TrEMBL record:
InterPro entries, alphabetized: ARM-like, ARM-type_fold, ARM_TBCD_2nd, TBCD, TBCD_C
Record's protein name: Tubulin-specific chaperone D
Domain Tubulin-folding cofactor D ARM repeats, chain residue ranges per copy: 271-514
Database matches in PANTHER family: BETA-TUBULIN COFACTOR D, TUBULIN-SPECIFIC CHAPERONE D
GO molecular function term, any single one: GTPase activator activity
Compositionally skewed regions (Polar residues) per UniProt: 314-328
Annotated GO biological process: adherens junction assembly; bicellular tight junction assembly; microtubule cytoskeleton organization; post-chaperonin tubulin folding pathway; tubulin complex assembly
Chain intervals for the UniProt region annotation (Disordered): 314-338
Tubulin-folding cofactor D C-terminal domain sequence ranges: 872-1060
UniProt keywords, alphabetically: Chaperone
Skewed-composition ranges (Acidic residues): 329-338
GO cellular component, one term: lateral plasma membrane
Native organism taxonomy: Eukaryota, Metazoa, Cnidaria, Hydrozoa, Hydroidolina
Family: Belongs to the TBCD family.
Amino acid sequence: MEENIHTQVLNSFTGDEVVTNIIDSTVKHSSNVIALEADLEKFKVCLNEYQEQPHLLDPFLEGYVSRLLSIVKDKETPKSAFHQSFKYLYFISKVRGYKSVMRLFSHEVADLEVIMKMLSDQSITDFESWETRYILLLWLAIVCMIPFDMSRLDGKIKDENQLIVNRVINTAKAFLGVSDKSRDAAAYLLSRFLTRPDLKGSKIGDFINWSLECLKFSNVTTMTGVNAITGALTTLALIFKHGRRDELLDFAPLVLDTIEECKINEVQNTLVRKISIKVVQRVGLIFLKPRVTSWRYSRGTRSLTENLTASATNKESNKQDLINNTDESNQDPESEDFDIPEEVETVIGILLVALEDTDTIVRWSAAKGIGRITGRLPLELADEVVEAMHSCFFYREQDCAWHGGCLALAELGRRGLLLPKHLPEVVPIILQALLYDERRGSYSVGSHVRDSACYVCWSFARAYHPNQIKPFVQKIANALLTVTVFDREVNCRRAASAAFQENVGRQGMFAHGIDILTKADYFAVGNRHHCFTQLSVFIGGFEEYTQTLVDHLSIIKVSHWDSAIRELTSHGLFHLTKTDPTYIEEKVLPRLLEHTLSTDVCAKHGGLLALGEVLHSLHIVHCQEKQEGYKIGHQTIEHIKKLLVDMEKGKELRGYGGEMLRKGCCKLIEKMALSNISVDESEVLDACWRIITTTIPHTELPVQGYALEALPSFCQQYVHGSSYFDQDKLLNELLIQLKSNLKFNRMGFAKAIGTLPTFMLKTMLKEVLQGLMECALVENVDSVDAGPFAESRREAVHSMLKVIQTTGVDDKSQLSDVLDCLFQCTDDYTIDSRGDVGAWVREQAMSSIVQIVCHFNKTHDEYFKMHNTHVKILKVVFQQLCEKIDRVRVKAGQLLYQLLYFKKDMGALPCIEQLREILSKSKEETINWAVPNEAFAIIEKLLSIKPYQYSLILGISISAGGITESLARHATDCVLNFLGENQESIEEMDRISEHFLNILKTHNKNDRVIVPLLKLLERLFSSGCFDVYLDSDTDSLSDFPQKLLTLVKEECKGCGDIKKLLVVVNIFCCLVQFEGEVRTKSLQHLFMFLCHKYPRVRRVTAEQLYTTFLTYDDIVCEDEQENVMNILTDVSWDQNIEMVRPERNKLCEIFGLPIPKLKKVTKQSSATPVKKDELDSYKDLVSRLQGY
């Protein structure tokens, strides 16, 4: 896991040249919008890498900022370059932080008027240039901090509105109500400007009153009102942060009263609530003088080395003295004697309520506020705050309250405000929070609570001396490790691991801390399965943690709402049993038995799974300890038997949660069998058999899987040598289901037969193989329903392989039948609404044949040679290697390499050395068969191997005529390149042409093959690949054009498929170029298509003829060429056939061809007229519309 994590630490900024060039070209590219956008993207990409290490930009920032400011100050700068520069500045400030960047802005008095002029020219409603307004406001904020009295800049101006102070304030106010980032910059500007020493008391009061009016009169239900409130509150928060206490103290009560009166904390907008809490806490801080409380807990000096070695015993007394000095007995009572305003209680009340807010950011802000304010309170009031926070952890409180309370406790502990005397009260609450998980229907809440509880443990480790934490060390360690390995959420596991690591380092008293940390680090806890099955076993090996982990699984996790966690819990208990089998047997087994009787489906399911795993693990442990006579307790066995019978009879497996209970029962039956638990009662045996056999055909595949895992174990333990069960009868029950009309019955029982043990298969091997072969062949399924049964055929093929491998077939006739069946399955091209579902069968059939050949190579090698099995399977694999589906090509490529290299001596295989040369072992990992250009580049080389040409061309033809453009292009190029290299070889051309003809003959009327093949032939004709047959003096012995014409003529007889007919038209047009009988017959067929019943066929035929006559100008004599072309173009071939037939006949006369005659329609027998279905007219309409 850790090896797959890639981290990158940068040492310096390497994009200086790129960034400088982009900035310098800003004005140059100002007239090119596309160039500006490209530059901005490059700029972002260059700086984005430094988001986590922005300090690396510091040496270059001043140069970038000065360059950009010089551009914006230049009055000749185009508007587009002006705004582009501010976008660059914004992105720099985003990466490095606005406080670091704004210090680099020029801040001279002369800049003030320049910036004000630029801001006045900006439009608030221009949403494309908000970066400009944002940076200008930040720039104005740094300029307004110049150490000069602002009134000096006004000169003799008497108009109040024109005074520089009022202009700045009014300008900033205008931006407080916007929704973009410039609102934050305006708030920062006002907070800095209004808190200037020269504006003391003159403007800040007016602005606070204006802000409070905004809060009172703004409508919180509108976006405009929310924006106004957000801007006002943000500014108030910053003013109370940056302003002097003596100046703001008079305004603090008014602000607090207004916030309470307007009920800002109840507004739906999260950001408004968060900022209001920030204002409240800062107002509260104004009421209290800044001070460092004398009662605050201070840990003193800290040494990681001392914590880990625990060798500095001579310093213990000094440390104890330090702790005693921090106790409340050492406080100076006079330092705590000061008045606390009544408003502080209101502030704390608001913050405590905000700890229960529905949004995390509000709770987090409130927690920090409580920490800050408590740090200025006397000890008595601080203790009251801590006690008040306990209300967040009542059992009736929601998860939000628990989360907020944990955050507040962490803040108090981190600041030293939670004294050690509170730890006995707080630690139990934190231990509860670490396991908080409130179930709500089919899900639960609480991950954020557990995460915050880990944060509390982390902060306590840094805050307290080890002696203060010592009484709680074992409990905290157990709780943290439980969360580390067993929490459902990865963020909680990692948070607990970090908290445990911090405690080990800071406290130094966690047992086996370093050993555990080396295993349960950040990366290791990222995999949940690894945590439950491996890390838990390692940690459970330490006796301090064993029982805690086991108890957590057997009490809490076994009834978890998530079924995946319950399954992992059972696996965890299986592995943990060996750490303390006695405790498991005495304490855990009774708990699990209670869970199996629960009315809660989740608890019952978890109990069944865990019970089975624990029984099996106990059996393994006692067998390893050679306690052969060991048996599970009699009461436990009887409880399990009764449970299974009652659940099967009570129909619990059929109602709500039946799927989960079926999985649990099947797992329990499997583990009972593996544990050698004796079952003699017929009632129990029948119940178990019925549970398994009724679960096998379940519609959910995971549920099926549990039954299929239980079946072989059950048969081996309770059927083998049984006097009660007749194994042949049971097997017949399974075989009958292979002929079921239900999809899942066939699929499930086909899988089941493949899992059966040898003793059951041996006695009826012939019947088993026969049943699987019948199930595997598509011929045994109604063609209409062949698609839904594709999965059952695939599973039957797979089971045939498993049965043969299990029994080791000696009868060669049976092996021959199986191989014949598998070869038939490789030609399964069933299609349904899901697509080519037959591909599943083909993949499995190919794989099964190869596995059989490899498995029985030594014992049946002569048989395979005699029947040419290797060549047959190679041909099948080569065909699938050229198929359209990427997954099939990948599988075929893997099997091809397996066949070529599973043994060194493959002398019986034709051209083996040539194949191994093309497909060398070194290329196996580098060839990506799923990528068409890579796959067909190899296939092009394989085409030169004659014994496999037919199979390769068959596969290529289907891919080349497919609808996927890239696949069709690469497949066609493969053939074109090969034929181009062999144009001068008449023998090779004849061989390839003969393969095309054989495919047409073999797959006659099979549109899946014929249509793409004809498309490929059309492209080959168009590319001139068959021009060798144009020369009458050629030495070719093949009459390819004439034979192709005959076969294509047969294909189009009685055809009503528009797409196929159009492809046939194209082929006839290609054949027109060949003189003699081929041209004459091709033209006859094309002229017949001009009067086809489908208008679209007539129209396309005319278009193709026109193109053909233009391409081959020797077809039409010069005198009639214009007349022919006019007929083809001027006639509307979509109109009624009777209208176009005379024009077609004219063409026949021009070319001297006989005019086609209509077939005589035979008179129907004078029978009673049958009433026509009303839908027939609709069907006829659809069929006719198809032709347009």
